[in-house]
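ESCALATION

Customer reports they have been waiting on this structure for their group meeting. Please prioritize. Original submission:
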Amino acid sequence: MSPLNPKIQSFLKSTWPSKLASALILMLMGWWAFANVLPMFEENKEIAAPIKIVNKTKTPKKSSLNTLNLFGNTEKNTSINKTSEAKQTKLAFTLRGALATDDPKQGIAQIQNANKQEQHFAVNDNVFGKATLEEVHADRVILLHNGRYETLRLPDQ
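Update from on-call: job pushed to the front of the queue and completed.
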């Protein structure tokens, strides 16, 4: 066997070939990790097939649409007009507070009678045996007294 060229011998004795081999191994491991880990973070790009919706209901008859009262009942609208035109009550009551909502049929009122007794009343409650609470607004309540709508307002401060 012939001895190796002195340049080749000095190359094999130096430390950089081992460093180069280590660097190549690290690069291959990094590439492998990148190729195997990166797909885990990608979003699932499957697209679902569109759903076909079939309407099996029958079209209602025109006559049944009229009975649905889609835009409200005209009887209710006339009662609202009657309550908005209600005169000031002559009953000896004082409105002490009103908890009103967007729907005047859902509020609560605190009313005091002539004997200085205060009570809370909800809509449709009998107010001290003399009237029925019909509506609650932020500044007034509507009472039904002897078949007529009457207004009881908060006192002026």
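Sent to customer with the following note: The longest helix spans residues 16-37.
Escalation resolved.
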